[in-house]
Design brief:
Layout (H helix, E strand, L loop, with lengths): L4 E10 L2 E11 L4 E5 L6 H8 L7 E6 L2 E2 L4 H6 L1 E4 L11 H11 L6 H10 L15 H13 L5 E5 L7 H16 L3 E5 L3 H7 L2 E6 L2 E7 H6 L4 E8 L11 E5 L2 E6 L4 H11 L3 E8 L3 H9 L10
Parallel strand pairs: 3-8, 3-9, 6-7, 7-8
Antiparallel strand pairs: 1-2, 1-4, 4-5, 9-10, 11-13, 11-14, 12-13
Bound molecules: adenosine-5'-triphosphate.
Adenosine-5'-triphosphate binds next to strand 2 and helix 1.
Amino acid sequence: MTPAIEVKQIHKRFGALQALGGIDLEIDTGEFFALLGPNGAGKTTLINIIAGLTLASSGSARVMGYDVVADYREARRMLGVVPQELVFDPFFTVRETLVIQSGYYGLKNNNSWIEEIIHHLDLTDKADANMRTLSGGMKRRVLVAQALVHKPPVIILDEPTAGVDVELRQALWRFIKRLNHDGHTIVLTTHYLEEAEALCSRVAMLKHGNIVALDSIRNLVNSVSGFLVRLRLSPDILPLSLQSLMSSHEDECYILAIREYSQLESVMAALRMAGAQVLEMQVLQPDLEEVFVKVMGHTENPQPVR
Ligand SMILES: Nc1ncnc2c1ncn2[C@@H]1O[C@H](COP(=O)(O)OP(=O)(O)OP(=O)(O)O)[C@@H](O)[C@H]1O
């Protein structure tokens, strides 16, 4: 089957800066894929190259089999991009904006789909409002709507939930999940790793313009060895024999780094020996954030979902 997106040896230089250092990536039709990485890793540059907005210094990219340079029009028709920045024409209403956007794709009788998008993105009340009167979150909804007017089989969302409220985030993901269920390929960049973990099946992590991890979320999370155990003790003293396992002590709880479950037995025995009573115990499984921190080698960017 033709991949939804196929990127081969993409390099991109901005003067002396190498923004992308040879990206190879294949995303299958129907995938819900996350592109993760700290600020400046090259995610938007890669998206812009796939969207035909930026020319790669070398390498090639295809969308549904169409080369983004040689078959620009076909490739662009296959793709809907929700950009990170709020760019819009302030002179039109929401509905007019979507009708005009349909016109760019030569779609004349697109009204029923436009109404459906307006409905699902909760824009009905604002459909006849001028774009410049909308709040930031509402403008973002319109950007999503604009990307969808031509029912593209591949949809790329570049940080669509940055700074938007819980309600929109949930409405947006409900709609995007439905589109994915209907067969659309979804590519998402986000700094909210819990969001990527909840929605996506596969992830690429970019660092300094290179892919440093590419796998299913399950495999990535399984690759983190060990887990953490959170303990509240009475008295609040960790026996000396367990001090080497301590990762941190916060909110009157000890966080211990455990390699494997069998090690728990000796931890409990050490606590018994020391006469320490366990008031609370919680096993913290590794998550995508832990993988990200390991892969990136620092905690520069991940943020908790608000
Ligand atoms: N037009 C440009 N001219 C010069 N440098 C650029 C240009 N666009 C991007 N860059 C640089 O390329 C690198 C990659 O930027 P890019 O915007 O692709 O990162 P990103 O992963 O999308 O970051 P963020 O998470 O902040 O959106 C950065 O160092 C950036 O400063």
